[in-house]
């Protein structure tokens, strides 16, 4: 069995059409059919329903084919990771690939690059932007980056981390909002509020916030009035009193007129602020001397 045959099978299984799959694979339909037939003969079972294909010219996976598809995709994925890993290990040891998520504070990225350049001048730092916190961690697992600026918790036990900033979740609102004069705000007291949020696909910790809100007895879903793609636009809408928003306390709001920032406490029984931990993450296995050195420099 060849990886090529598995790729052919996956394409047919996803397209459910031999002609379309052949076009995508840049081979003839007859050659594709022959490879699928050889694969089925080697395995000893039908992966596609033969009767429907012959009589109705319809492509449908058998139950065995559905199960085999999952395993085949995993095999291809692992082979791609192995290739990527080998390539990356063979790269220059003087290159450090650092990933950061789209909405990360640029000051922190510049600060880290400056420290690395100052203490290890021979290192070439390559900055790579990822859309979300989760995609940063995927980038580490897929050997696309060496270090990732992310948020806790981590999604995989094979990753290690070191916290470099501890932040707190504040709520921002118009200076004319009824709660603007409050010193602190209980999370449970926000259940009736209208919300302005960063687009969910870009939001670095949307799910984390939702879990906190649900523990406080409410969900924001029905009360989201605007989704935006930047903190600047979010602040502008909040200043117009369209809604309120969560914002990390480390963000500088001094240049955002008409907005106040308030501490948020989990609840009256646990009067503590909601922490947001920013961390540098890396793979636990095969840590290079360069990565170890940079980790020791941080924090």
From TrEMBL:
Matches recorded under InterPro entries: LysR_HTH_N (IPR000847), LysR_subst-bd (IPR005119), WH-like_DNA-bd_sf (IPR036388), WH_DNA-bd_sf (IPR036390)
SUPFAM superfamilies, alphabetized: Periplasmic binding protein-like II, Winged helix' DNA-binding domain
Keywords per UniProt: DNA-binding, Transcription, Transcription regulation
Lineage top rank: taxon: Bacteria
Pfam families (UniProt xref): HTH_1, LysR_substrate
Domain spans labelled HTH lysR-type: 1-62
An MF annotation (GO) of this entry: DNA binding
Family listed: Belongs to the LysR transcriptional regulatory family.
Protein's recorded name: LysR family transcriptional regulator
